[in-house]
Amino acid sequence: MTFKLFSIESPYKMTISKWSLSLCFIMLLINTIAQTPGEWTWVNGDSSMNYIGSYGTMGVPSPTNKPPGIYEGAEWTDHLGNFWIYGGDIGNNLWKYNVQSNMWTWIKGSGNVNYPPPVFGQQGIANSANSPGVRWTSETWTDNSGNLWLFGGDCFSAAVGGGVAYNDLWKYDISTNMWTWMKGDSVANGTASYGVKGVESSSNKPPACYESNLTWTDSQNNLWLLDLKGCLWKYKISSNNWIWMKGDPSGTPNFGDKGVANINNTPGNTLFDFTRWMDSHDNLWLMYSGTNIHYTTLFKYEINTNMWTWIWGDTTINTSVPDYGDALCDYDKNITPYRRGEARACWIDNCDNLWLMGGVGCAQVAPYCGDLNDLIYFDTQAFKWIRAGNDTTYYSSSIYGTIGISSPTNKPAARSGALPFKDINGDLWVYGGLKLNSSQVFGDLWRYKMDAGCPPCINPYASITENETGKDELSIYPNPFSDQTTIQLNHFLENATLVVLDSYGQIIKQVNNISGHNFNLTRAGLSQGLYIFQLIENNKTYSSKILITDY
Questions:
Q1: Contact 394, 372 (CB under 8 A)
Q2: Which of 33-37, 85-89, 233-237, 410-414 has the lowest mean pLDDT?
């Protein structure tokens, strides 16, 4: 695959900062290409259990820095492709991992102080002292401006001598390194104020949430949340208000007819459900297991119709039998995965396939439930589950191999509550998690190099790889750019469509009815970072990567 990365009129016109940023990007590509597709690499972190962490100096990256073992922490990927982790242990620490340098930075927090309480400050006002405190199982989003958001989760309270839950909403601004308490209650176990369904109000608020992470960010920069009762909420950043969109506070599911959208369809109780995706068309996807991991089903929600559709699975409680077949990437086999909960490690690939790894799986035979490390995906075009790798039995052990070197035998251990990330090349990363049968926590970072043949890309609209038929016809100048760039083709476009996708594969900008040999793409509404653009004309798609800088 080839694509034009940069077009430079004169080397003297590019600043040192731009050269540095471009060099980092090239180094990342080299580093990723070195790994064999379809294999795992233990990239960073510690192979011992319950690792206590190596913090180093706050704000200073170092190859010796490592977060502690983490279970059900909060995770984000920013617009520059850095990975962020908060909480998930007994502290309130925020960490950043730079993929290019392979180094962690302890960004903020109290270090080894145990169970620090939240510091709310004044609602809506950022302050360097503000902190959500110790948290597990919080809900997270990255907005389209690159801010990191956190909602609720479990927290240890010295006042009650145990765990409590919150319904507070926080924003972390990377540029200022400060938290802001935006919405919700500052006391534990806050109750919901639903208001009128579909009507925005400043008094609306979801209930306290824990043991779930069902969140999505749409192309209009709204944050979506499915609460523990299966009620769907939309948070409008622009007005700082919640809207109760769907669902019944009783927590009763209504599946309807499989494959048929209906205004009455809704998931129910979502305790222990963590597996969710957003596709390139702004549809919200959910693996729904119900209370106590009863089901193995998929739901899809379409924003423009405000309706759920039961897509796949069996709604009879506790009856599905796992069946993975014998071969990997076998499209002649429609596998049946385990029922599962605590499967936070989930990703959507650049072809809108829904991936997940591990979690707590359950079946109808002894030992009934246990940790998994199965790597599977649901093909949204073929409407079937496919096994891509790892094991299909409980409690599999890690094979670490040599750090930084991939191998066909490498694999992460079975685990639940691991944190997922996806890099700018579409490869899958996972950090930490819990070893259920020993109550020990992992502190290792893994990368899975995507294999172009598994899955085959049958949804070119969502693909971020370049269309081979168009690679010699497209040029971009300048690239990187800070204000605007010119995209030029050697033939005349008629009514083409341009889409810009972020590192998650989500469409964040779209321009329709493009005609001519060239046109200007402005930065408006896009923060610094790497993006993929696709120019679609009839049945032909031209794809490439663009890098926006602040320099």
A1: yes
A2: 33-37
Q: Cα 207 to chain center, whole Å? A: 23
CB 224 within 8 A of CB 284: yes
List the strands of the sheet with 162-173, edge to edge: 139-142, 148-157, 162-173, 178-183
Is residue 17 scored above 50 in pLDDT? Answer: no
Provide the 10 A C-beta neighbour count for residue 52: 13
How many whole angstroms from its chain centre is CA 459? 20
Structure tokens at 133: 């405190």
Asked if CATH classification 2.60.40.3080 holds for the domain at 11-28+466-548, the reply, yes or no, is yes
Q: How buried is residue 300: exposed, middle or buried, by Cβ count under 10 Å (0-12/13-18/19+)?
A: buried
Split at pLDDT 50, 70, 90, the class of 416 is very high
Q: Hey, where are the domains in the chain?
A: 11-28+466-548, 54-221+239-249
User: Using CB atoms within 10 A of its CB, is residue 539 exposed (0-12), middle (13-18) or buried (19+)?
Assistant: exposed
β-strand partners of 323:
336
Q: Is the pLDDT of residue 32 over 70?
A: no
Among residues 468, 279, 387, the alpha carbon closest in space to that of 38 is found at: 387
The distance in angstroms from the start CA to the end CA of the chain is 29
- What is the predicted pLDDT for the residue at 85? 98
User: Which residues is 245 bridged to in the sheet?
Assistant: none
Report the alpha-carbon distance of residue 216 to residue 225 in Å, rounded. 7
Question: What is the rounded distance in angstroms from the CA atom of residue 253 to the CA atom of residue 258?
Answer: 14
pLDDT of residue 34: 61
Mean pLDDT of the chain: 87
CB atoms within 10 A of CB 395: 17
For the whole model, what pTM was predicted?
0.79
Written as one string, the DSSP assignment of 103-117 is EEEEEES-TT-SSPP
List the one residue out of 235, 217, 224 whose CA is nearest residue 143. Answer: 217
